[in-house]
Amino acid sequence: MASCDIKRVSRFLLQAFHFIAGLSTGILSASLLQPADLLKTRVQQARSTSLVHTFRDITRGPNSFRQLWRGTLPSVIRTGFGSALYFSTLNALRQHVFQSNLLTSAGLVAIPSRNVRNATSSSLPQLSNLANLTTGAIARASAGLIMMPITVIKVRYESNLYSYRSLRGAGSAILKHEGIKGFFSGFGATAIRDAPYAGLYVVFYEQSKRRLSQLKDVTSSGFGDMKSTASVPINFVSGVLAAGLATAITNPFDAIKTRLQLMPGKYANMVQASRQMVREEGFRSLFDGLGLRMGRKAISSALAWTLYEELVRRAESKWTEANVSL
After folding, report:
1. In Å, how far are 77, 100, 134, 205 from 108, measured between CA atoms?
2. Which of 318, 176, 306 lies closest to 238, judged by CA?
3. Do the beta carbons of residue 261 and residue 203 sit within 8 Å?
4. What number of other Cβ atoms are within 10 A of residue 33's Cβ?
5. Low-confidence residues of the chain, pLDDT below 50?
6. CA distance 164 to 98
7. 128-184 per-position pLDDT tens digit
8. 279 CB-near residues (< 8 Å, 6+ apart)
9. DSSP code for 269
């Protein structure tokens, strides 16, 4: 009985660690890259503005440095807790899938040979492409739904179409003029953007890590034991490549989502918004902000996932040593 209780507590603490690790990496990336997020929002809100023009407008105004970090608080809350929910949910789903005998027999869990398994920089369970795609999409969509109200406030903070002075004031204004529905503006486009992005990212990320690890031809004594000096650069480069590919594929949904959240009176739904944007501004409007989003996503995702995996690797290594000694 005591042994079962210890295992239960250990599982809970490990899951809590995944939440804390996700929270830490999310806060760090959001704080560092807020200017890129703000510029992307400003560029997407109107086709007539360019990145250079937008940047000059901000830097010519008063408190230009502070203006580049406008909306940092809602961004940190959204990205920090969103990452925490995403990573902890993703870990729980991946562990469940990895340990499922039914899914293993169906071929959704990868069971590579000992040599292949060792030659990887990953400290996470190895699943099939379909399982990676599905778990990543479900985890991101779930976290996105929970964090949607703060996402709407964040986007409007970054825009110059609104003049909110506080999170409380923003929430009160949205509730007064748009009701509860206002906090979920653009959720359809957000879910369609985030779920495929997260699923594709995990697929590309795991495939890139596997291939780069094999190219480097580094082997170790056990699963997830590749040295940090070798795994960190492999994970970071894999994160950059995966984010670039997934971002390019899903950017139209990001552009539509931004318009829906900033101008709910003009755009009724995702289909109408996409048609109107293409009719009035051309097909290129669906790729507004792609360069900024790709650069920001590449750095933030690579940073977050590399730090997350390294924290998990070290924590689980110490956890294993502690359990062995008991």
Report:
1. 34, 9, 10, 17
2. 306
3. no
4. 18
5. 1, 112-118, 218-224
6. 46
7. 888 889 999 999 999 999 999 988 888 887 777 777 777 788 888 899 989 999 899
8. none
9. S
